[in-house]
Amino acid sequence: MEEKRIGVYICWCGSNIAKMIDVGRIAKETQKFSNVVMARDYKYMCSDPGQETLISDIKKYKLNRIVVAACSPRLHEPTFRKALEQAGMNPYLFQMANIREQDSWVHIDREYATLKALSLIKAAVSRVYHHKPLEKRSVEVNPATLIIGGGISGISAALEIANAGKQVYLVEKSDALGGITARLDLSFPFLESVRQMLKPKIQQVQAHKLIDVFLNPTFEDITGYVGNFKSKIRQNGPEKELLFGNIIVATGLQAFNPEVIPEYGYGKLPDVITSLEMEEMLMRGNVITSNGKEPENIAIIHCVGSRNSKYHPYCSRTCCSTALKYANQLRSMLPDSNIYELYADMRTFGKGCEEFYSDSSRRKILFLMFDQEEGLPNISKAPQNDSSEMIINMHEKLSGEEIEIPADMVILMTAMEAQNDAKDIARLTGISLCSNDFYIEKHPKLDPVATTTDGVYIVGTCQSPKDIVESIAQAKAAAARVLASIAVVNMEVEVTTAHVNEDVCCGCQTCIMVCPYTAIHFDEEKKVSVVNEALCKGCGTCGSTCPTGAIESRHFTDIQILSQIEGLLKSEKESI
Amino acid sequence: MAFEPTIISFLCNWCSYTGADLAGTSRIPYAPNLRTIRIMCSGRIEPTFVLKAFREGADGVLMCGCHPGDCHYHEGNYKCLRRYHLLQKYLQQMGIKKERVRLEWISASEGKQFAALANEFTETIRQLGPCKIKGVMETLT
Ligand SMILES: Cc1cc2nc3c(=O)[nH]c(=O)nc-3n(C[C@H](O)[C@H](O)[C@H](O)COP(=O)(O)OP(=O)(O)OC[C@H]3O[C@@H](n4cnc5c(N)ncnc54)[C@H](O)[C@@H]3O)c2cc1C
Ligand code: SF4
Ligand code: SF4
Ligand code: SF4
Ligand code: FES
After folding, report:
1. B118, B128, B99: which is closest to B34 by C-alpha?
2. Measuring CA to CA, how many Å separate A358 from each of A298, A398, B100?
3. Is domain A498-553 annotated with CATH 3.30.70.20?
4. Which of A467, A470, A472, A476 to mutate to test the pocket of ligand 1 (most atoms within 8 A of CB)?
5. pLDDT per residue over A217-230, tens digit each?
6. C-alpha to C-alpha distance for A540 and B43, rounded to whole angstroms
7. Closest by alpha carbon to B14, among B41, B44, B34?
8. Does the predicted model carry a pTM greater than 0.95?
9. B59 in Cβ contact with B128 (< 8 Å)
10. Is the confidence at residue A575, as pLDDT, over 70?
11. What is the homologous superfamily of the domain A145-252+419-491 according to CATH?
12. Span(s) in chain A for CATH 3.50.50.60
């Protein structure tokens, strides 16, 4: 057997790690572990010079196993695996110890943090000793793409991909394309017509030879993996099998139902309406109250269901600018009306939006501030002989006064929330939800449109509230990712799959019962189970269920995990 | 010196390990007694891993997976849950209190909850005192 020569690299991460962990002492202690040939600490292991040190050490000291103690493997494992490959090593002969996210950033006692780091490194060293080289596997990428959701995000991604000459299947659950965007009149901050922008896009989609649109279809389970997904779809007619290599989820948002906020009386007071109902009126071109009159006093209330611990904790991001949009449109349509904006904070981020705000404040619009923590404005029906229909009572924050505002129409800037069926789509495509039911990206900064499932992307408002510009930017980013994967033709896939040792398997077929992907079948001739590695996703469930120990979960083998446990519990006694 | 428990935790990659990372990026401090092993899914946790941890001197074992219905591989966490009940019985027969092993669901966005769990479980194990099974095994063999 080859001699194991392990190199250990301890990263300072500037001061992120070094401040809480005595990296120099650890390097010294680590040097004493058996089979460790080289242990170094360095300022930034992921930097170019950091990686170059690693590569030149591998060559110089004939290292054949590497441990990097640094940030989370979820961040930089791919970086270091690539460095190993550059040095001519198999990338799987590598293990990371997470001494940043799960050590230096969460502990406040330097001694404990240092001891913990040492034990995590010892475990990584014990584990990497048992690592085996794994051969890369690649699959051909099916050039078709499935897009779920036909709003502006789904439409933009579809056109981008189809215009590059690749097939798109666009699935929309309602009976028309366009999503929320199709229900908008003008767009902030430049007040251009949304319809004029959207309509030609929809027409292009409908006319495109490479885009198959499915409206209101029934849709079966998606099976397979990146490059080779499969599903069945039915849209009034026979069932059709779809094959595709990538998936873009663009299922958008829904509006919050304000009935649950007692102060606003929505559903009881006929002239309290939501922002989407306002859009409808604006599209029709006449703004009138329930008794057919032009409103004299109009109030627009911000943050309805947003930034409030009772409803949604987050900011819905587009409603401030949308509210200003209404104030401006109404000012032009009803020049003599009184317009009140009741806001909690004014968040007009984005190009041109802050200017839009300052312009609006010069257009005879009265801005009044409230504090959600101290209580919401309260809307009630005005007394019979009052000049207005409703009265709003509020505590105005800037003046500190209790005030009364007359109103004939109140527009609620309702929150944007995740779709009711967000969870179903998440399950269908194998992606995760955050605590507010928006989809989680692979990395919040470095990989904002990918997900933890290879080949599945998220774009638009299903990821978080955003405006049209941001939605389109994400859609085009995902389209570029998809086109890049198609251009590669063959794509590398995970090789940490399960494998049955035929000599040990007794043929009980327990593994076949537990595999969630029906990736295992029974070889009747040999009377043993066999894993189809193209279908196996490497969850390891069969490995932990097999009674005879015939199944090896590659890269998570029994011996690898057991020696990691041993390492975790031995370091302290052995070296300190 | 006061007793500081050593706890081995098994965290599934997709939810719980990500949640633990989030506690880190959010800088939420918690007890330094946990030593984590990352597995792809809680369904991979074999009873032998847990037994091994106790035999090597762990005072407690924490297993975390995705919330029911959220497992990246559909149902690995249900399989883990079933095994967990059997495991608790088995540990008791060996003379290890069943409270020393714990299964909890932590999602990728539950950094705060993970930190709270780490503190609470560490405290539970501290109250239980050191696990003696390692010593017992050593005298037996
Ligand atoms: C009142 C209001 C006013 C706004 N005003 C502006 C503005 O002036 N300017 C601006 O830039 N932005 C504005 N926005 C924001 C803008 O509407 C969004 O940024 C945009 O609609 C996001 O598009 P999307 O495609 O991501 O989502 P959506 O528009 O929600 O489209 C999603 C589509 O997916 C479909 N779908 C959902 N679930 C499924 C499923 N399971 N299977 C298949 N299909 C599914 C839906 O039916 C829908 O067609 C406003 C929003 C609101 C609510
Ligand atoms: S964008 Fe404005 S109105 Fe909307 S939730 Fe954020 S602060 Fe409130
Ligand atoms: S569970 Fe193990 S022994 Fe039984 S069929 Fe599967 S591989 Fe063979
Ligand atoms: S590792 Fe998981 S997906 Fe692969 S064969 Fe085993 S049970 Fe099936
Ligand atoms: S992936 Fe988290 S429990 Fe299965």
Report:
1. B118
2. 20, 18, 61
3. yes
4. A467
5. 988 789 888 899 99
6. 7
7. B41
8. no
9. yes
10. no
11. FAD/NAD(P)-binding domain (3.50.50.60)
12. 145-252+419-491
When pLDDT is averaged across residues A547-568 and rounded to a whole number, the result is 96
Q: Decide if A556 and B44 are in contact by the 8 Å CB cutoff.
A: yes
Q: Among the residues of B5-69, which ranges form H helices? A: 16-25, 47-55
Q: What does the alpha-carbon distance between residue A69 and residue A57 come to, in Å, rounded to a whole number?
A: 16
Model confidence band, residue B1 (pLDDT cutoffs 50, 70, 90): low
CB A457 within 8 A of CB A475: no
Residue A573 has pLDDT above 70, yes or no: no
Q: Which residue has a Cα nearest atom 2 of ligand 4?
A: A539
To the nearest 10 degrees (0 to 180), the angle between helices B16-25 and A73-86 is 100
Query: Does 3.50.50 match the CATH number of domain A265-407?
Result: yes
**CATH code for the structural domain at A6-136:** 3.40.50
Which residues lie below 8 Å from residue A151, measured CB to CB, with a gap of 6+? A177, A178, A179, A180, A181, A250, A252, A460, A461, A471
- Cα–Cα distance between B58 and A286 in angstroms, integer? 72
Angle subtended by helix axes A319-333 and A275-284, to nearest 10: 30
Q: Whose CA is nearest to atom 4 of ligand 3?
A: A508
Task: Give the span between the Cα atoms of B69 and A278, in whole angstroms.
Answer: 38
Nearest CA to ligand 2 atom 8: A303
Average confidence (pLDDT) over B50-74: 93
In chain A, residues 90-129 whose CB comes closer than 8 Å to chain B: 98, 100-103, 105-109, 112-113, 115-116, 119-120, 123
- Whether A541 and B44 lie within 8 Å, measured CB to CB: yes
Reported ipTM: 0.96
pLDDT 10s digits, B72-125: 888 899 999 999 999 999 999 999 999 999 999 999 989 999 999 999 999 999
Structure tokens at B2: 């006061």
- Whole-angstrom distance, CA of residue A25 vs CA of residue A504: 45
Inter-chain residue contact B23 with A432, CB threshold 8 Å: no
Domain ranges, ordered by start, for chain B: 7-134
- Identify the residue whose tokens are 């789509």: A425
- C-alpha span between B14 and B65 (Å, rounded): 8
> Which of A6, A1, A2 lies closest to A37, judged by CA?
A6
Region B7-134: CATH code? 3.40.50
Q: Give the rounded distance of the alpha carbon of B9 from its chain centre.
A: 4
